[in-house]
């Protein structure tokens, strides 16, 4: 974008000439003057018009700054781009490239790539704020995908927001880089040609993008950084060993705040009023609103239930709603063993607690809700150890309830990360209250040990292992 186009944009949007902000007028702005080539005019440096010079052998094109902007430059700088393999919820895998950007608060995936993988999710508005630029994306999805380095075997599940076009230029890394002394023993996979990233990994997935080891040469030579996705060559390189579309300025901040679970909107005043009206109409239409169309992941959860549910004796059996058919769980034994030792210390301090806790475990075994695992189940790719703890209700003294913690994390993951939520089948409270008033007598019922009475498919039982050894502290947990 040339200076003339920038002036046109400033005049059309009515922003301040000195700081490019729309919150005040130029006469009230305290920003410094231009300063480019000694210019004292009251405008921003990006609006400075350079005087025509005698053409030289090499002319630097105009710079462009977007959310992820590409501008030509005489410098050759490689960004942290890594070859990866992404996997969709149905197991389809695609080889592509990811930009590892610690300046972004969220992760983004190209909309076309998400559709290619069959990844779908809830729609949320998204505001992308970059350097001197803001972009509104109204209907963006939050999708869950698997990702691993192209030469790595470990797959990581991440959440990413879809975007129409990432606008990240392509770059190439020549094999000439591997001739440098400090890069000689790196795998050839760190080199690529015309790689255009279709995925941006931000600080919300910091464990994947942070540098865990460095290879550093001389000052004007590239460096190599090791991440969980593999080695990445980045930094300054000679122009003969690098071809890139231009410089890239990245800093992305989403309308979802610092995480997708902590929603903070940057919407304008009109959008806030629209949201208030929407909520008012939702309240007015309680009990008569049409049900929303089920999401793809909800349909998958229902399909798994319908395919696996069956009656076994007097009980029902069902499979777990996996997000991925070919799931491979990370090691979780040590995490569960640490939690068990914590419970055992508490049992040693309180005989009353020990008796109540042991009685709960004995009850599970006696009624067939639990059994001792076989050796093959512990080696299953789905094997996961659930830590357990006791919960006591102050309104029910003397009663102890055993809880298995599916949110406990090992290697940064938990069992819940691999399972679908499924559709919300709970009745809304206003509907319950309305039906409560239809007749003279209302009946309330409860099923004792309801969840324990539902059996889990034998193929999925390795995902619900737990450790226990009672008073036999000299023996390893089983």
From TrEMBL:
<dbReference type="InterPro" id="IPR043502">
    <property type="entry name" value="DNA/RNA_pol_sf"/>
</dbReference>
<protein>
    <recommendedName>
        <fullName>Peptidase aspartic putative domain-containing protein</fullName>
    </recommendedName>
</protein>
<dbReference type="GO" id="GO:0071897">
    <property type="term" value="P:DNA biosynthetic process"/>
</dbReference>
């Amino acid at each position: 974008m040339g200076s003339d186009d920038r002036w046109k944009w400033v005049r059309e949007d009515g922003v301040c000439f000195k700081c490019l902000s729309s919150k005040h007028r130029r006469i009230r702005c305290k920003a410094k003057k231009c300063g480019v080539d000694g210019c004292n005019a009251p405008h921003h440096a990006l609006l400075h018009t350079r005087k025509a010079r005698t053409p030289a052998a090499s002319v630097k094109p105009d710079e462009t700054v977007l959310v992820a902007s590409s501008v030509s430059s005489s410098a050759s700088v490689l960004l942290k781009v890594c070859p990866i393999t992404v996997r969709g919820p149905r197991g389809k895998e695609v080889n592509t490239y990811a930009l590892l950007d610690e300046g972004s608060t969220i992760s983004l995936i190209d909309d076309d790539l998400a559709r290619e993988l069959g990844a779908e999710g809830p729609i949320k508005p998204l505001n992308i704020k970059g350097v001197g630029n803001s972009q509104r994306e109204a209907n963006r999805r939050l999708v869950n995908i698997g990702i691993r380095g192209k030469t790595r075997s470990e797959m990581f599940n991440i959440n990413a927001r879809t975007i129409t076009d990432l606008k990240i230029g392509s770059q190439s890394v020549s094999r000439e880089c591997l001739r440098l002394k400090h890069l000689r023993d790196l795998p050839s996979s760190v080199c690529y040609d015309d790689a255009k990233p279709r995925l941006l990994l931000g600080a919300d997935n910091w464990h994947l993008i942070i540098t865990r080891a460095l290879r550093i040469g001389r000052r004007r030579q590239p460096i190599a950084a090791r991440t969980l996705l593999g080695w990445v060559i980045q930094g300054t390189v000679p122009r003969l060993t690098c071809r890139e579309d231009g410089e890239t300025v990245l800093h992305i901040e989403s309308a979802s705040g610092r995480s997708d679970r902590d929603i903070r909107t940057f919407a304008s005043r009109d959008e806030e009023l629209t949201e208030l009206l929407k909520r008012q109409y939702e309240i007015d239409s309680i009990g008569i609103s049409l049900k929303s169309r089920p999401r793809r992941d909800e349909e998958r959860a229902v399909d798994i239930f319908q395919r696996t549910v069956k009656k076994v004796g007097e009980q029902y059996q069902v499979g777990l709603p996996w997000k991925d058919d070919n799931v491979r769980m990370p090691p979780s034994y040590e995490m569960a063993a640490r939690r068990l030792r914590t419970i055992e210390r508490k049992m040693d301090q309180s005989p009353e607690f020990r008796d109540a806790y042991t009685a709960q475990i004995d009850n599970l075994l006696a009624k067939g809700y639990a059994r001792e695992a076989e050796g093959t189940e512990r080696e299953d790719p789905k094997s996961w150890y659930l830590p357990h703890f006791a919960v006591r209700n102050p309104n029910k003294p003397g009663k102890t309830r055993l809880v298995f913690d599916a949110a406990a994390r090992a290697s940064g993951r938990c069992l819940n990360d691999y399972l679908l939520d499924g559709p919300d089948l709970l009745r809304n409270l206003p509907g319950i209250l309305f039906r409560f008033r239809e007749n003279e007598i209302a009946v309330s019922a409860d099923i004792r040990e309801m969840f324990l009475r539902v059996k889990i498919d034998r193929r999925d039982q390795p995902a619900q292992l737990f450790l226990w050894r009672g008073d036999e502290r000299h023996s390893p947990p089983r």
